[in-house]
Design goal:
Number of helices: 0
Largest sheet: 6 strands, mixed
Strand order of the largest sheet: 2-10-9-4-5-6
Structural class: mainly beta
Number of strands: 10
Strand content: over 45%
């Protein structure tokens, strides 16, 4: 059974960088043809897809967030991470990591506030 768990600070100040890590168990992030992604849900709004990292390390990002987003991985730890630069209060959301076509983490609340 694949499980994913998000971790990171729950509070980030405006203009700083939001950094989250997703720890995966039950599968390898390098398993062929898998893809691992981040989505978020701001309060009172729908889900927003942010980006994905493939089993081969390739990346694709939402056009609206591409300039501020980076998704990386640590294959030794079976983790992938999200960095979102220059955050504003509009980046306040519940952030989820997941496997394409499969499981998702429980989500982690991130609030951007001074």
């Amino acid at each position: 059974q694949v499980q994913l768990q998000e971790s990171g600070p729950g509070l980030v100040k405006p203009s700083q960088t939001l950094s989250l890590t997703c720890t995966v168990s039950g599968d390898s992030i390098t398993t062929s043809y898998t893809a691992w992604m981040w989505i978020r849900q701001p309060p009172g709004k729908g889900l927003e897809w942010m980006g994905v990292i493939g089993y081969d390390g390739s990346n694709y990002y939402s056009p609206s967030l591409k300039s501020r987003t980076s998704i990386a991985r640590d294959t030794a730890k079976n983790q992938f991470s999200l960095q979102l630069n220059s955050v504003t209060p509009e980046d306040t959301a519940v952030y989820y990591c997941g496997r394409r076509g499969g499981e998702w983490g429980q989500g982690t609340q991130v609030t951007v506030s001074s």
